[in-house]
Amino acid sequence: MLELNEVAVRYPGSAQDALSDITLTFDKGEFVCILGKSGSGKSTMIRCINGLQEPTYGEVRWDGQPLSKMSEEQLRKVRRQMGMIFQHFNLIPRLTVMQNVLTGTFGYRSNFKNLIGWFSDQEKKQAKQVIEDVDLSSMADRRVERLSGGQKQRVGIARALLQQPQIMLGDEPVSSLDPGTSNHIFSLLEQMHRQRHLLTIINVHDVGLAKRYATRIVALKAGEIIFDGKPEEFTDREYFNTYESNEVNEKTRSR
Ligand SMILES: Nc1ncnc2c1ncn2[C@@H]1O[C@H](COP(=O)(O)OP(=O)(O)OP(=O)(O)O)[C@@H](O)[C@H]1O
């Protein structure tokens, strides 16, 4: 479904690769957590997957098709199938929950409709449904700026779901939330993942959450994969290699 083939990224002016030789295949139904120290390349990898960052070397393929060879229209179509949630939610604070969620339809509509903010009854009905799915029905007309962080992230999830995605991508979606709320958000992501048969790929700093919810963990270190396996295989040694040892290119790679 989604493949990264020898992907490398080097940012302009940098002497080092932010990502180096990343080859991974992801399938529908996987719940993947990406672990790694700050600066290990997790966000860069997510940006390569959603086509926002072009690899310096290698390819990202969606259903066998390289993103780099797609037209703008094809890329737009692929992006529609990727729901995205963010650390800082990326919502419009002065708009209501419903209005924010409805922006999830933008990838499907003409620029003109988006500009005038007109939504069909069908779109509103679908938005109502996803707001119910994330248990925010009672707050649909409340301005987002008046919500807690956990509620805002639920709005973010509802907006992503309205795109009817095949992939749910998360760039540290619980980093600004307390542990209980983070667990609640992961539990909701897992529920949506199961109900909608999504491929879910989430960057996260909390190893406990990754081990509890992921079906697969990928750990990065200095832009390279140092672990790719089942959560139960991510042992104390893997934890040490990922977060505490300064060695790069460990012999203990699990690939
Ligand atoms: N736009 C950019 N221009 C130059 N260098 C960048 C840019 N974005 C990231 N980098 C560098 O690339 C490397 C990987 O960064 P990235 O943000 O992907 O890591 P990360 O694992 O997501 O970190 P964090 O957990 O802190 O978000 C870092 O060394 C970072 O400084």
TrEMBL record:
It comes from the Bacteria. The lineage of its organism: Bacteria, Bacillati, Bacillota, Bacilli, Bacillales. GO terms for cellular component: membrane. SUPFAM superfamilies: P-loop containing nucleoside triphosphate hydrolases. Residues 2-247 form the ABC transporter domain. It holds the Pfam family ABC_tran. InterPro entries: AAA+_ATPase, ABC_transporter-like_ATP-bd, ABC_transporter-like_CS, ABC_transpr_PhnC, MetN_ABC_transporter-like, P-loop_NTPase. This is Phosphonate transport system ATP-binding protein. Keywords: ATP-binding, Cell membrane, Membrane, Nucleotide-binding, Phosphonate transport, Translocase, Transport. CDD domains: ABC_PhnC_transporter (cd03256). One of its GO terms (molecular function) is ATP binding.
